[in-house]
Design goal:
Number of helices: 4
Number of strands: 6
CATH architecture: 2-Layer Sandwich
Shape: elongated
Radius of gyration: 22 Å
CATH class: Alpha Beta
Mean pLDDT: 79
CATH superfamily: eRF1 domain 2
Largest sheet: 6 strands, mixed
Strand content: 15-25%
Number of domains: 1
Amino acid sequence: MEVRTHERLVTLVWIDAREARIVRWADESAHVERLESDVPSHRQSSGQVRHDPRVRPGGGGGSAATSGEPRRLEHLARFLEAVADRVPDGDLQLIGPGTVHEHLARVVRDADPRGIRHIETAASAPLTDRQLIARLRRLVGHEPRRRTIARRRRLA
């Protein structure tokens, strides 16, 4: 989300390896942009050690069994670049589970050599779009007024 506070633009990004949500505030309303990734999921280890019987008489010592991690990291790097390209100028708050939000912060910092952007990172569980909007509103001090029972009775 992006909100203008004191002529500064703030954007909130929730990201994990499957998707990113860029939340902006413009014209007194929130705009949420979703980006889906093509990053393959982690494969679970089968617990089996790969053996190559041709290496020596007793077997074993074969090449290491990879879980496709190098390819996954290439996909993740491309996804982070795509997200960084979609994020507007201004201050950022990057949140999400795991470490993907920290990797995105590194990509954004590398693209900003002068270091004029303020970038915050924080761990976060999955959040709905409404929760993200509320978080940005609190961040910039534009919380909506809460309706109380007494106020509803006065309005009735």
